[in-house]
Design a protein that fits this description.
By secondary structure, the chain is mainly alpha-helical. About 45% of the residues lie in helices and about 5% in strands. It is built from 23 helices and ten strands. It has helices at about 10-15, 30, 50-70, 80-85, 150-160, 180, 215-225, 235-245, 255-275, 280-285, 285-305, 315-330, 330-350, 360-385, 425-445, 465-480, 495-515, 535-560, 565-585, 590-610, 615-650, 705, 765-770; strands at about 120-130, 130-135, 140-145, 460-465, 530, 715, 725, 735, 740-745, 755. The strands form five sheets. A two-stranded antiparallel sheet has the order 1-4. Strands 2-3 form a two-stranded antiparallel ribbon. The chain has a two-stranded antiparallel sheet with strand order 5-10. The longest helix is centred in the last third of the chain and has 38 residues, at about 615-650. GO terms for molecular function: DNA-binding transcription factor activity, RNA polymerase II-specific; sequence-specific DNA binding; zinc ion binding. Its main location: nucleus. It is found in: Nucleus. It holds the Pfam family Zn_clus.
């Protein structure tokens, strides 16, 4: 007699009636009685845990008890009153029980408010906290702090001196031509008084005549609504009113009010000369012609005012446009000095205080706008140069400008905005808030006195992970509060579309500044270091943000929203490309490196297309050309060295690297099986054929084995258009190092430490990080290392 086969699962109807089921679909009982045969109800059978799981839990428990005895010696874990005693701080932490640095005992983020720098996970920065002091051939000193991109370039130069050579000047950008060939006029003067004598009240005549009214009108419109769309310091109807008065008179009939307006007009014309609605003219003549013309207007503005004695709004507005001209013509160091003059003048005029003075609505709003733009530039340029900002938050009680467009602000009243219409000032205020977060990033991620380094040491410092998470949440909160009208997508006026993308770019730049010091954690050279997954997450986030920046600039270029004079986008793209190159050099044998390099080359091509229109893009392009010429040979040598080192390790060890007899192998999906996320080809709501944008799906997503961590992340579908992933909670898996000995995850953090000694060790699937969104303009929907 044949023994009846025991089925593993009964159908829902047989389970309900508690009768035998043959496990077929449908089963015999349901077929006879015409019942619907389903297997939907969850099984209530209790499964016993696997022995490996119990063993892992026991090891974790033992490790937790060991750590607890170190931190709280003599504590009785069986005491029923232990929780109450801990809440009352009845136990004191043992001095020296918790140490700083990567690989130290990690107590989680909750300890951060109580012990500054102690007990929390520390991430080591790849840049040094000393900055860089350079002396040029003329004997001029120039200092750049460690938040400057120069510190990152110096680190790359130290690691790869064969492909990134030491320049003769402080700037990392190759100068394609001498500055004397760019400027026929003398060099930019430092901000000093132009007055010959305090008693001499005469105003010198400008060396350059005004252009025709039509040309001037176009330049003014470009400067205000294009070049300074996020940095609005003027009331546009007032500017046009004064503009018409100037061009309706001959110079000999100018009034005192007209003469006071001339420096501002010349400064606006200088900035507008660098931007052009039609780039074909600049392509034909080159940016040198545009900069030379702009410099003539700049010099005229300087001669018409005493910059060292600025105590009226129009003069201060003129200095702001001079600063914007210097920024756009790649003179950041000089512009930093002008920012200092502007800020001191603003303080003398009391713009930092919310004073209920006798101001009409236009004057009151203009005072707010001018102050906050100067404050933004002080923080922003200081962060890029690695120099401190001047004014503390405690010294300011000025409120942000009203989010009302200029045409609704009159000398007598402020009219309400129409329902459903977004103001450009809303974008400016959002940018102000974002720059404040960048200031926080500089303060805590690039501290002057870094943790983990003795006094006088030039070594790298460490940053608390809790502070990184705090800043991530600040960025997320900023994004969530951003009005829908300022988020990419939908139909909007061109100026709103422009500020949408400028805000998105500024947001990505803030993210890159946050994560860039930790880029070295995604590296096969992190040998003999104990590193947790949060370090890898920060490094992978830097790669993701860098790729996003390149995608954003490429899309802006295709949509006609990117101009070469946007110095900020040029340098941000340049350092994003360098970050991707660093990743590829550190992981030469990974297929992912080729995909990352493809994005880096796309960014380089975008800069090349703007090189004729921008000195910044030209310098970046020449530097990158030298780098990319030597890159293939360096990558080939890196792959050969990696293969040779891997063979030597395999000859020494009888077991496969990263595994022991007890370990459970991690199976990485094949590249062909991995899901391929889509890259957006257009804005939301804008039609586009699939052929005009290279799809991101042509690149290969990151897999476990390629990047080399271990337990996988849980990424969301990349096709949802959102950057969404989560680090795993502690799985209790035992991770084995080179010697076969186990490392164990700590109880209070989602961390499983491993010794990162080979690029082929299994890394978490960082696909959702490396390909964060189907739309490159979409904001991430949650912090990148959560």
């Amino acid at each position: 007699m044949q023994k009846r086969r025991r089925v593993t699962r009964a159908c829902d109807e047989c389970r309900r009636k508690k009768i035998k089921c043959d496990g077929k679909q449908p089963c015999t009982h349901c077929t006879v009685y015409s019942y619907e045969c389903t297997y939907d109800q969850p099984s209530n059978r209790r499964r016993n845990a696997a022995p490996q799981y119990i063993e892992a839990l026991e090891k974790r428990l033992k490790r937790m008890e060991t750590i607890l005895n170190i931190v709280l010696p003599g504590v009785d874990v069986e005491d029923p009153n232990l929780e109450a005693a801990l809440q009352q701080n009845a136990f004191q932490l043992k001095p020296g029980a918790i140490t700083n640095g990567v690989g130290a005992t990690q107590m989680g983020d909750r300890t951060a408010p109580h012990v500054e720098g102690g007990g929390e996970s520390q991430l080591e920065s790849m840049v040094k906290s000393t900055g860089q002091l350079d002396l040029d051939e003329e004997g001029h000193w120039d200092f750049h702090g460690h938040s400057s991109g120069l510190s990152f370039v110096r680190r790359m130069r130290e690691q790869y001196p064969d492909i990134i050579t030491e320049p003769a000047h402080a700037s990392p950008f190759s100068k394609s031509r001498p500055m004397s060939q760019v400027f026929e006029s003398p060099k930019f003067d430092s901000p000093r008084s132009n007055a010959e004598s305090p008693m001499d009240g005469s105003s010198p005549s400008p060396p350059t005549d005004l252009p025709s009214k039509e040309v001037a009108k176009e330049l003014v419109d470009i400067a205000i609504n294009d070049a300074a769309s996020l940095l609005r310091v003027v009331h546009e109807p007032t500017i046009w009113k004064a503009f018409d008065k100037i061009f309706d008179k001959s110079p000999e009939n100018y009034t005192n009010d007209d003469n006071m307006f001339l420096p501002l007009l010349y400064a606006i014309l200088a900035l507008g000369s660098l931007f052009s609605k039609d780039g074909r003219e600049i392509d034909a003549k080159g940016y040198a012609t545009a900069i030379d013309q702009g410099f003539k207007y700049f010099k005229s503005s300087r001669l018409l005012m005493d910059i060292a004695d600025c105590r009226d709004l129009r003069s201060l507005q003129a200095i702001v446009f001079m600063i914007l001209f210097l920024q756009s013509s790649a003179k950041l160091s000089t512009c930093y000095s002008y920012i200092g003059v502007a800020l001191r003048s603003a303080l003398r005029m009391g713009l930092h205080r919310n004073i209920p003075g006798n101001f009409n609505p236009i004057e009151a709003e203009t005072r707010k706008r001018v102050f906050w733009v100067i404050r933004k530039m002080d923080t922003y340029v200081g962060a890029l140069l690695g120099l401190p900002h001047t004014l503390n938050d405690e010294d300011i009680d000025q409120v942000l400008p009203l989010e009302v467009d200029d045409e609704y602000i009159t000398e007598t009243e402020i009219l309400p905005m129409p329902e459903g219409q977004i103001s450009v000032m809303a974008a400016s205020n959002a940018h102000t808030t974002l720059v404040a977060i960048i200031g926080k990033i500089v303060k805590y991620i690039y501290p002057l006195k870094g943790a983990g380094a003795p006094n006088g040491s030039v070594k790298s410092y460490s940053v608390g992970y809790a502070k990184i998470r705090e800043i991530e949440l600040d960025l997320q909160e900023w994004m969530q509060k951003l009005p829908m009208g300022l988020r990419p997508g939908g139909d909007a006026p061109k100026i709103i579309i422009r500020v949408q993308q400028l805000l998105r770019m500024a947001y990505a730049h803030a993210q890159m500044m946050l994560y860039r010091p930790f880029l070295h954690y995604v590296s096969h050279t992190c040998k003999s270091k104990v590193v947790d997954k949060r370090s890898y997450a920060c490094a992978a986030a830097c790669v993701s943000v860098s790729r996003n920046i390149i995608h954003i600039t490429s899309e802006m270029k295709k949509r006609g929203l990117l101009c070469g004079a946007y110095w900020f986008q040029m340098y941000t793209s340049f350092f994003a490309i360098l970050s991707l190159v660093f990743f590829a050099l550190e992981n030469p044998e990974n297929q992912t490196s080729q995909d990352v390099l493809r994005d880096a080359k796309e960014g380089k091509e975008t800069l090349e297309q703007l090189a004729k229109r921008s000195m910044a893009a030209d310098r970046c392009t020449h530097t990158l050309n030298v780098l990319f010429e030597q890159l293939p040979d360096r990558l080939r040598r890196g792959r050969a060295e990696s293969i040779s080192a891997k063979k030597r390790r395999q000859e020494v060890s009888p077991h496969p690297l990263g595994h022991s007899e007890e370990s459970t192998p991690v199976v990485a999906p094949k590249l062909s099986e991995a899901p391929r996320p889509r890259r957006a080809s257009t804005f939301h709501g804008w039609g586009s054929s699939s052929g005009d944008v290279k799809p991101l799906s042509q690149t290969v997503p990151l897999t476990h084995a390629q990047l080399g961590l271990d337990s996988p992340l849980t990424p969301s579908s990349a096709s949802t258009g959102n950057l969404s992933f989560s680090l795993p909670t502690n799985t209790g898996n035992t991770i084995h190092g080179l010697n076969g000995g186990p490392f164990h995850g700590l109880p209070l953090s989602p961390t499983v430490v491993t010794s990162f000694t080979d690029a082929n060790l299994p890394l978490p699937d960082l696909t959702s990080m490396m390909f964060p969104s189907a739309d490159p303009f979409a904001y991430p929907n949650q912090p990148m290392t959560s």
